[in-house]
């Protein structure tokens, strides 16, 4: 049985993430979507909210599960017999960072990384862009799954009524 992991902040999960997860689920027997807890990154959604949204988005994929992790990704991989890390590559600008991460993860614990080319339609898409557009009340309905859109609209309403700034 071959297992892959798709790690990320998923703040929130977007159609671009989902596309990579779906394609990985066709290539591997099992796929774990790992919501990484990174205390240095200010987030819009709590870890529990990000997990719940990711679970809702992958519920049609029977071989995909969602988990969270606050340690080193390679330790999760070793503890859970993961064969490969799958990351999406949107543009050349992603490449330097992803190559460095892939090489350090290989060096640290011998874990391989597969870099999957993003669908051109999603190559501009990032969670931070989605947060930014939503913050100003823009339409992100073509960028995120329906369940995420509902929660983004709620956050925007909450933040405007509280006078705070979405995504900051
Ligand atoms: P982001 O970079 O959007 O803030 P994450 O840190 O959650 O998101 O990213 C996790 C992984 O998902 C990374 O490998 C990233 O390259 C990939 N990814 C993010 N957005 C896309 C996209 N639109 N298409 C393909 N892969 C993506």
List the helices and strands and how they pair.
Layout (H helix, E strand, L loop, with lengths): L2 E6 L6 H13 L2 E7 L10 H11 L6 E6 L3 H7 L4 E6 L2 H18 L2 E6 L9 H9 L10 H17 L6
Bound molecules: adenosine-5'-diphosphate.
Adenosine-5'-diphosphate (ADP) binds next to helix 1, strand 4 and helix 5.
CATH class: Alpha Beta
Which structural class is indicated by helix and strand composition? Answer: alpha/beta
Question: What integer is the average pLDDT?
Answer: 93
Helical residue percent band: 40-55%
Bound molecules: adenosine-5'-diphosphate
Which fold does the CATH topology refer to? Rossmann fold
Low-confidence stretches: none
Q: How many strands in all?
A: 5
Net shape: globular
Strand order of the biggest β-sheet: 3-2-1-4-5
Q: CATH homologous superfamily?
A: HUPs
In percent, how much strand structure appears in the residues?
Answer: 15-25%
Query: Could you state the oligomeric state of the chains shown?
Result: single chain
At CATH level 2, the architecture is 3-Layer(aba) Sandwich
Describe this structure in words.
With 168 residues, the protein is α/β, with parallel strands linked by helices. It has a single domain (3-123), classed as 3-Layer(aba) Sandwich (Rossmann fold), CATH 3.40.50. The chain is built from 6 helices and 5 strands, in the order βαβαβαβαβαα. The chain has a 5-stranded parallel β-sheet, sandwiched between helices. It is globular. The mean pLDDT is 93. The structure holds adenosine-5'-diphosphate (ADP). Adenosine-5'-diphosphate (ADP) binds at residues 8-10, 14, 16-17, 20, 87-88, 90, 94, 118, 122, 125-128.
């Amino acid at each position: 049985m071959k297992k892959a992991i798709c790690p990320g902040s998923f703040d929130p999960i977007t159609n671009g993430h989902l596309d990579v997860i779906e394609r990985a689920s066709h290539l591997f027997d099992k796929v774990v979507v790992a919501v990484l807890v990174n205390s240095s990154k200010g987030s819009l959604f709590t870890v529990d909210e990000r997990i719940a949204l990711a679970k809702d988005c992958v519920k049609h994929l029977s071989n995909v599960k969602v988990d969270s992790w606050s340690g080193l990704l390679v330790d999760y991989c070793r503890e859970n017999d993961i064969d490969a890390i799958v990351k999406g590559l949107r543009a050349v600008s992603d490449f330097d960072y992803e190559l460095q991460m892939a090489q350090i993860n290989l060096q640290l614990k011998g874990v391989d990384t597969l870099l999957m080319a993003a669908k051109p339609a999603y190559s501009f898409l990032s969670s931070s862009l989605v947060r930014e557009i939503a913050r100003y009340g823009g339409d992100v309905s073509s960028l995120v799954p329906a369940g995420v859109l509902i929660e983004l609209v709620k956050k925007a309403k909450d933040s405007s009524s509280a006078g705070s700034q979405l995504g900051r």
